[in-house]
């Protein structure tokens, strides 16, 4: 029973140390559940756009390779988090821009990345250097960004990651410039609320 409760965390830790077999096991053990979740939530949208969910396992691998590294013991929480990330990647595929953009600054070697521990009471002590603390703070924000609602996430990506003006953001979203500005201003507090929820490892963080 103890092994079952800790297996997800053990596999995540092994993967973060570079064990590809652990990554494969994580995908194999969770792919069916996540694929069913994605089909239920996005099936109609994807069919209408001529997309498919048949490559969910491939997207799972990409998410686990390029998203901020995290550890959580609860398998259901892990599945809920990964399913949301996969949904966002697929939504972005529909919109023709990548969720986890291939930014070389994000593709650091596995052993040197911060690992965010999402089990309540198990956060490690603050890193010793200002650079490390800043890097970890950025990792929390990046992880939260992959878990917020699609509309909030999209406007933040367009504004902050794509560097678009509010006029350009509005054009991309089919809304007025002022509406884009207000949507962005409302999305930022929700992003930070998600960060705090993740830090507390609250259940709402995984939904």
- For the secondary structure, the number of strands is 2
Percentage of β-strand residues: under 5%
- Compute the number of helices: 8
N-to-C SSE series?
HHHEHEHHHH
Topology:
Blueprint: H1 2-16, H2 20-48, H3 56-66, E1 69-71, H4 75-95, E2 115-117, H5 130-145, H6 150-161, H7 166-173, H8 177-200
Parallel strand pairs: 1-2
Could you describe the 3D structure shown?
- This protein is mainly alpha-helical and 207 residues long.
- It has one domain (2-206).
- The chain is 66% helix and 3% strand.
- It has eight helices and two strands.
- It has helices at 2-16, 20-48, 56-66, 75-95, 130-145, 150-161, 166-173, 177-200; strands at 69-71, 115-117.
- It has a two-stranded parallel ribbon.
- Helix 7 packs across helix 8 (177-200).
- It starts with a helix and ends in a 7-residue tail after the last helix.
Can you describe this structure in just a few lines?
The protein has eight helices and two strands.
Task: Give structural attributes.
66% helix; 207 residues; 2 strands
């Amino acid at each position: 029973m103890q092994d079952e409760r800790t297996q997800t965390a053990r596999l995540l830790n092994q993967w973060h140390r570079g064990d590809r077999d652990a990554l494969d096991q994580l995908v194999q053990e969770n792919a069916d559940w996540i694929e069913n979740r994605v089909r239920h939530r996005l099936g109609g949208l994807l069919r209408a756009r001529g997309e498919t969910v048949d490559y969910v396992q491939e997207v799972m691998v990409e998410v686990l390779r390029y998203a901020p590294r995290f550890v959580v013991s609860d398998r259901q929480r892990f599945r809920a988090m990964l399913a949301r990330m996969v949904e966002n990647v697929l939504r972005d595929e529909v919109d023709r821009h990548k969720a986890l953009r291939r930014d070389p600054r994000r593709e650091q070697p596995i052993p040197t990345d911060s690992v965010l521990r999402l089990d309540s009471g198990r956060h490690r002590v603050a890193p010793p250097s200002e650079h490390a603390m800043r890097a970890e703070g950025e990792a929390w924000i990046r992880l939260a960004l992959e878990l917020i609602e699609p509309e909030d996430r999209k406007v933040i990506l367009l504004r902050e990651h794509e560097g678009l003006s509010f006029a350009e953001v509005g054009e991309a979203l089919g809304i007025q410039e002022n509406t884009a500005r207000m949507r962005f201003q409302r999305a930022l507090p929700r992003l930070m609320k998600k960060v705090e929820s993740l830090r507390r490892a609250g259940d709402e963080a995984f939904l």
